[in-house]
């Protein structure tokens, strides 16, 4: 059991790991009290060694770790990488590269939608993962032997999982499928948190331009304040309070204090002044600069049965190809296909179109039919006279 808590030891192990073809990586972090994830442990495993790096150790320099992540010769292997990558993007200002996410690789190989690490371990190695330390406090020091063993399990078995999945993907000639998914996962745009777009995460039903303009300014202020103080957004001000302020549009501290859950001392202090300024900025925006929500076209009721048929077709095509349906198309994609849309539909491009999209269009045009034959559902080519004419 190797715990890395000093810069020299970290430099040495990263130097050795840079000789490997791939390194498995995982993290342990806390986020319940902070805006930015607090990195508490980084687990690494090469072919012949593994280690847990303590980023909270006094004086430790993580530069060798960032250099390992930058090394194009070494593939970095994660499972369910999104949060890990967000942490490293914030810590180092860039993403590890190249990477592979075994959760996505498993979906490409037909292991189901968003398959968990412990499930993959059991199915591919026959081992059992003890999840008893899942909710432990990873910031507490010293870490116990149970904690370290639990953390290292997440990279130990990942070596075997990666190798097995890589062989399956190569055998089925689906490397390009996986590469397409990794391109999205490793795009810096996926992890940039733009305060100006914070309002888009809020679930509001209003389409009123002035309301949305004020809400955008309020949400941007909250995002910047949460980042500055490194606290969760709702520790600054809750969503429902933003909605009420955007609705009431108070002009002074007394009116602000009457909005939902805001105490008078807050309304009269620095935070209150900044909230009122945000309201004023929103109200001053001309109509052409007011935000417009992305309006999703409602599915006509008569097309609902077609969506159901498309779901069946999707399951059949994915079962035949041994790939997870979630990776190919979501419900929104199916609804857009049913309405005859092609733009901004992932299922209508690349390998997804070849696997499913083309047949989905044929089904919509009446050139495919689904037939029950005994205990099976079959796909039939049919002649569409109207399309022929």
Distance between the termini: 73 Å
Quaternary structure classification: single chain
Number of helices: 18
Mean pLDDT across residues: 92
What ranges have pLDDT less than 50 throughout 5 or more consecutive residues? none
How much β-strand is present in the residues?
Answer: 5-15%
Counting helices, strands and paired strands, the structural category is alpha/beta
Overall 3D form: flat
Q: How would you write the strand order of the largest sheet?
A: 1-4-3-2-5-6
The largest pleated sheet is described as: 6 strands, mixed
Give the fraction of residues assigned to helices.
Answer: 40-55%
Radius of gyration: 26 Å
Order of helices and strands: EHEEEHEHEHHHHHHHHHHHHHHEEH
User: How many β-strands, per DSSP?
Assistant: 8
Would you kindly provide a written description of the structure presented here, covering whatever features stand out?
With 389 residues, the protein is α/β, with parallel strands linked by helices. Helix content is 50%, strand content 11%. It contains 18 helices and eight strands. It has helices at residues 7-17, 63-70, 82-92, 102-108, 117-125, 145-171, 175-185, 209-229, 233-236, 239-248, 253-257, 264-267, 270-284, 304-321, 325-328, 331-338, 350-365, 385-388, and strands at residues 3-4, 22-30, 38-45, 50-53, 75-78, 99-101, 368-373, 376-381. The strands form two sheets. The protein has a six-stranded mixed beta sheet with strand order 1-4-3-2-5-6. The chain has a two-stranded antiparallel ribbon with strand order 7-8. Strand 5 (75-78), helix 3 and strand 6 form a beta-alpha-beta unit. The protein is flat. 32% of the residues are buried. The mean pLDDT is 92.
């Amino acid at each position: 059991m190797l715990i890395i808590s000093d810069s020299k030891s970290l430099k040495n192990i990263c130097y050795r790991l840079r000789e490997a073809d791939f390194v498995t990586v995982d993290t342990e972090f806390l986020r319940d009290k902070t805006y930015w994830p607090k990195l508490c442990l980084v687990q690494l495993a090469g072919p012949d060694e593994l280690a847990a790096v303590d980023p909270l150790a006094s004086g430790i320099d993580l530069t060798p770790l960032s250099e390992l992540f930058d090394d194009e010769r070494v593939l970095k292997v994660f499972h369910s990488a999104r949060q890990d990558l967000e942490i490293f993007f914030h810590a180092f200002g860039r993403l590890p590269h190249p990477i592979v996410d075994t959760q996505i690789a498993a979906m490409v190989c037909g292991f189901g939608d968003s398959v968990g690490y412990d499930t993959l371990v059991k199915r591919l190695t026959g081992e059992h993962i003890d999840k008893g330390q899942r909710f432990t406090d990873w910031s507490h020091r010293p870490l116990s032997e149970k904690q370290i063993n639990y953390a290292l399990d997440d990279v130990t078995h990942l070596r075997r999982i990666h190798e097995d999945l890589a062989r399956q993907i190569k055998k089925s000639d689906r490397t390009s499928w996986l590469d397409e998914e990794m391109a999205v996962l490793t795009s810096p745009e996926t992890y940039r948190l733009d305060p100006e777009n914070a309002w888009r995460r809020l679930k509001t039903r209003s389409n009123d331009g002035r309301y949305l303009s004020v809400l955008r300014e309020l949400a941007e202020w909250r995002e910047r304040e949460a980042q500055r103080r490194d606290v969760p957004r709702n520790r600054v001000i809750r969503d429902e309070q933003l909605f009420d302020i955007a609705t009431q549009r108070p002009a002074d501290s007394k009116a602000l204090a009457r909005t939902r859950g805001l105490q008078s001392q807050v309304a009269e202090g620095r935070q209150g002044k900044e909230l009122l300024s945000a309201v004023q900025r929103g109200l001053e925006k001309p109509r052409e600069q007011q935000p417009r929500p992305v309006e999703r076209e409602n599915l006509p009721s008569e097309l609902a049965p077609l969506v159901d048929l498309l779901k069946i077709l999707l399951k059949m095509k994915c079962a035949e190809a041994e790939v997870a349906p979630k990776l190919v198309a979501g419900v929104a994609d199916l609804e857009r296909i049913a309405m005859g849309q092609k733009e901004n539909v992932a299922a209508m491009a690349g390998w997804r179109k070849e696997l499913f999209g083309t047949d989905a269009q044929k089904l919509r045009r009446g050139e495919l039919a689904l037939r029950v034959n005994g205990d099976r559902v079959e796909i039939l080519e049919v002649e569409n006279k109207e399309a022929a004419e």
